[in-house]
């Protein structure tokens, strides 16, 4: 029986909204024949979230018992995944009803290795802010996303916090990058350069905005330039090496890398129109 595995890196001090996340997972329906597991990995020296997963027979919780950071925590969770597909879900975000029923069928096409639906921002007052997709809907050929990022100052048109990915492909690329910030962008830069994906027009999840978000910390912002530089370098290196999955609509490769912006040309995320 095929299985989808949600991967969540959790952290007690910033998990005030975890209850909403749990309820959104419980409300999911799966395509016929599919089953669900939720692999939760809690970071930090004083784990505190285990009890919230009691009674959820599809949840598999473990704690690091150490402060390892987001990327390593995600990769530890990935090591326990048994599903064919991975759904990324942060501990404060919300899956909308029908998310899995919408995205899983996109993987019926063997050439599709990642998929994502659209997201509204869930604001602190409970209101929602919507965003128009910066990419066309439908199949996204290998390389298209990184070309867009290179043309737009090192900002990506896909929000990695809602990705669904083939597990084997994610593992083949080494999981999340060992970067203190934007570990998911560096992963996605390699992923989207070598395989095709699918940008679904359906609204499938909510990205919660709140003051305690990791990426709003001063240290994260200071590391973000390096994280995006790593992502751009990975994209360029993969393109230059000509590494593409069989069956992907890969761009022609002439042995040269896609021209990526220099660090000084990166557009700060906070000044970029979008997330």
Notes on the structure:
This protein is α/β, with parallel strands linked by helices and 275 residues long. It has one domain: Spore Coat Polysaccharide Biosynthesis Protein SpsA, Chain A. It is built from 7 helices and 10 strands. It has helices at 18-26, 70-79, 99-103, 144-151, 167-172, 183-194, 218-241, and strands at residues 3-11, 35-43, 59-63, 85-88, 94-95, 112-122, 128-129, 138-140, 164-166, 196-208. Strands 1, 2, 3, 4, 5, 6, 7, 8, 9 and 10 form a 10-stranded mixed β-sheet that branches. α6 packs parallel to α7. The protein is globular and about 45 Å long. The termini are far apart. This is Glycosyltransferase family 2 protein. It holds the Pfam family Glycos_transf_2. It comes from Saccharopolyspora rosea.
Write the topology of this structure.
Blueprint: E1 3-11, H1 18-26, E2 35-43, E3 59-63, H2 70-79, E4 85-88, E5 94-95, H3 99-103, E6 112-122, E7 128-129, E8 138-140, H4 144-151, E9 164-166, H5 167-172, H6 183-194, E10 196-208, H7 218-241
Parallel strand pairs: 1-2, 1-4, 2-3, 6-10
Antiparallel strand pairs: 4-9, 5-10, 6-7, 6-9, 8-10
Structural key phrases:
Spore Coat Polysaccharide Biosynthesis Protein SpsA, Chain A, 22% strand, alpha/beta, 10 strands, 275 residues, globular, single chain, ten-stranded mixed β-sheet
Estimated radius of gyration:
18 Å
The percent range for helix content is 25-40%
Q: Roughly what is the average pLDDT, rounded to an integer?
A: 88
- Give start-end ranges of low-pLDDT stretches: 252-257
> What string, H for helix and E for strand, traces the elements in order?
EHEEHEEHEEEHEHHEH
SS summary, helix count: 7
Oligomer: single chain
């Amino acid at each position: 029986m095929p299985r989808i595995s949600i991967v969540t890196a959790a952290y007690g001090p910033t998990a005030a909204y975890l209850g909403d996340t749990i309820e959104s997972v419980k409300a999911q329906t799966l395509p016929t024949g599919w089953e669900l597991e939720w692999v939760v990995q809690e970071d930090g020296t004083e784990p505190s979230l285990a009890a919230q997963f009691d009674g959820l027979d599809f949840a598999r919780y473990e704690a690091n018992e150490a402060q390892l950071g987001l990327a390593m925590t995600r990769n530890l969770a990935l090591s326990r995944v048994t599903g064919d597909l991975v759904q990324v879900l942060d501990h404060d975000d919300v899956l909308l009803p029908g998310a899995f029923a919408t995205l899983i069928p996109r993987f019926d096409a063997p050439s599709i290795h990642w998929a994502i639906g659209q997201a509204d921002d869930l604001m602190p007052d409970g209101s929602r802010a919507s965003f128009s997709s910066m990419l066309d809907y439908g199949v996204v050929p290998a390389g298209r996303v990184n070309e867009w990022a290179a043309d737009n100052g090192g900002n990506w048109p896909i929000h990695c916090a809602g990705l669904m990915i083939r597990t084997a492909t994610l593992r083949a690329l080494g999981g999340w990058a060992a970067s203190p910030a934007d570990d998911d962008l560096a992963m996605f830069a390699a992923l989207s350069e070598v395989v095709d994906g699918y940008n679904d027009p359906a609204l499938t999840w909510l990205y919660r905005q709140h003051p305690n978000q990791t990426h709003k910390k001063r240290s994260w912002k200071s590391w973000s330039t390096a994280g995006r530089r790593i992502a751009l370098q990975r994209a360029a290196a993969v393109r230059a090496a000509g590494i593409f999955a069989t069956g992907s609509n890969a761009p022609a490769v002439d042995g040269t890398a896609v021209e990526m912006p220099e660090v000084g040309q990166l557009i700060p995320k906070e000044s970029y129109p979008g997330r």
